[in-house]
Amino acid sequence: MRIFTAALALEANTFFPLPSSYRAFTEKTYFSPGTHPPLATLQTAALWVTRERAKTDGFTAIEGSCYAAQPGGTATREAYERMRDEIIGQLKAAMPVDGCVFSLHGAMVAEGYLDCEGDFLSHVRKVVGPKVVVGVELDPHCHLTLKRCALADIIVLYKEYPHTDFVARGHEVVTLVQRMIRGAIKPVKSVWDCRTLAYFPTDRQPMRGLVDRIMAMEGKDGVLSISIGHGFSQGDTPETGARILVITDNAKPRGDRLAEEIGRELVAMRQIIQPKLVKPDDAIDEALSLQGTVVIADTTDNAGGGAPSDNTTFLRRLIARKVQDSAVAPLWDPVAVQLAFDAGKGTRLPFRFGGKVAATSGRPVDAMVEIISTERESFQSFAGSPVPLGDVATVRTQEGVSAVLITTRAQAMGIDLFGNHGLPPKKQKILVVKSNQHFFAAFSPIATKVIYASGNGPLTSNPRRLPYRHVNRPIWPLDKTVKGALIV
User: Fold this and answer.
1) CA 379 – CA 41 distance, rounded (Å)
2) Which of the residues 241, 361, 363, 431 could staple to 231 if both were Cys, CB 3.0 to 4.6 A apart?
3) pTM
4) Distance CA 235, CA 91 (A)
5) Contact 454, 278 (CB under 8 A)
6) What mean pLDDT comes out for the span 1-5?
């Protein structure tokens, strides 16, 4: 048995004005064939699992390239076609194969391509034909399009948000692909369209209970896999929105019923599951009224949603209010990092940082600071996986407010983002994290409380504020009268 595997991932915020270039991919994640490191990463897990399972299951894994960019703007046509054609060329060279396993994000958009994953899989099928088994691992913040459902035999989405189960879902894909190659199963898909734009964190009820129940259903009564596609509201495509995917072993009527039941349950919770967002000063007031370390999520400047991560609203308010032992991270500012390295650890100097990319970045901060930490090629951790930060410098203002500055744009994911750079997390009164939800798994255990805030960054949790051009209507909450439907 021969299985080809590769990765190509971008969560494209089509409302973000800066394009994702080829450099945006190579700067974050690029591994040529056979050079993937010994640990899995969030966006290459299926390839890593294929490599590991080849050792234990006795098949041959042929590795292609791995590309993944930090969530950002629409990819350039040149970047997408270059990466696609490189991987397709590697697949051609690997033929014949019995199966393919791909790590794809699912919300990639490029100039001229509203469904990059669908286009990619169409090129795969042209090479391998209709009989080779194709399996795909996707992020739940994907556009679960009809085209990719038709082209891939197996599609499995992460179940958790934060996405801590990327390795487990990779194993699920590889297992199902092998079983289908051997003729042990005949997978058929059922997809129910919820006609909904919303977010569904799995750390809280009732979403937690729903995820636990669908996991308990898998492997029973002909159910092979169940995935909840949350959708990605910041991506303007015709098929943006939440969808339910059920894969059964030749039991489509049961899959159809389950997909609709789960979809209706998801729709019923779409309003109550959304976290309440408070304004920056209200968040700071509440944090100061509590004992211990309080974590505030700056959701509107989340690099994980395509934001620059250089908005200065929280920094400016904390400095103005002289909030001692408070810290903000990560702040993307390569120029300021270089200046901090030039100055050196321990130096005190007038310093300008943040507020660079767009009007929504706010004004730069000008303050007297001390350089308290500098580190080359640093990482933070997420579910045991390293996430690159590039060069990192930490500065502290004379008011007692600190900021972790990075050169590789990223969201807050692990507490080592602070701890490795001169800021023991539990010794801080307030930790402001630029993230929407991926921080939660690591930070909630040390927090007296987690507060979700709406700052002045470019991201919004309200889809009504976004100028959609491509989304199929009607869809909630843009329209009042909406009806879900079985579409596969």
Assistant:
1) 12
2) 241
3) 0.93
4) 29
5) yes
6) 98
Whose CA is closest to 240, among 207, 271, 190, 196? Answer: 196
Type of residue found at 472: N
Q: What is the pLDDT of residues 167-183, one digit of tens each?
A: 999 999 999 999 999 99
Assign 49 to helix, strand or coil: helix
pLDDT at 347 over 90: yes
Give the chain's largest Cα–Cα span: 69
Strand, coil or helix: what is 255?
helix
H-helix or E-strand containing 173?
helix 166-181
Q: Would you say 119 and 90 are in contact if contact means Cβ atoms under 8 Å apart?
A: no
Q: Are 232 and 117 in contact (CB under 8 A)?
A: no
- List the structure tokens of 37: 């490191």
Report the distance separating Cα 298 and Cα 403, nearest Å.
14
C-alpha distance across the termini of the chain, in Å: 30
pLDDT band at 349 (very low <50, low <70, confident <90, very high): very high
- Angle of CA points 429, 435, 441, to nearest 5°: 75
Q: Decide if pLDDT at 339 tops 90.
A: yes
Amino acid at 139: D
CA gyration radius for the chain? 22
Is the pLDDT at 191 greater than 90? The verdict is yes
Phi and psi dihedrals of 384, rounded to 5?
85, 0
76 CB neighbour count, 10 Å cutoff: 17
For residue 80, report the phi and psi dihedrals to the nearest 5 degrees: -65, -50
